[in-house]
Amino acid sequence: ALVGAPNDPVGGNAYQGSAYAFRRSGPGAWVQAQKLLAASGAVGDRYGYALAAHGVTAIVGANQDTVSGR
To answer: What is this structure's pTM?
Structure first.
């Protein structure tokens, strides 16, 4: 399972965002497997705003990220 935390501050960057991957560890129990961060995250990116998963592949969106200054 994936959980987005788009308002998560990362390393002093407000609203950079993150996502968390969880795995099932038994009936009704889940444990955090990994915290996902954007490689080029910055203040206000809101990484984790949109999520998709299929098998072992995850896609995490950052709806406020700027690409090439845009």
So the answer is: 0.88
